[in-house]
Amino acid sequence: MSTRWNYKVVEVKPKWLSVNPKQVEETLAPLGSMGWQLVSVTQVATSTYLYLKKEV
Question: Is 26 helix (H, G, I), strand (E, B) or coil?
């Protein structure tokens, strides 16, 4: 049987001119406690997009 996944994309918008590491940590901490795993990060303009997966 193959593993099945749920996927989530979260946008972290800048508070000032750019996203800082603390914002990313504050966004990821509760998601990690719910079982979401970060698999990729991209940045478009000033927004940062976090791509996560969680086993079904």
Answer: helix
Contact between residue 51 and residue 36 where contact means Cβ atoms under 8 Å apart: no
Rounded Cα distance, 33 and 23, in Å: 16
How many helices (DSSP H) and strands (DSSP E) are in the chain?
A: 1, 3
Whole-number Å distance between alpha carbons of 13 and 20: 10
Assign residue 53 a region (left: φ > 0; alpha: ψ between -120 and 50; beta: otherwise).
beta
Contacts of 49 (CB under 8 A, 6+ apart): 9, 10, 11, 12, 41, 42, 43
**Could you tell me the pTM of the whole model?**
0.88
Query: Which position has the higher pLDDT, 18 or 28?
Result: 28
Structure tokens given for 4: 């099945």
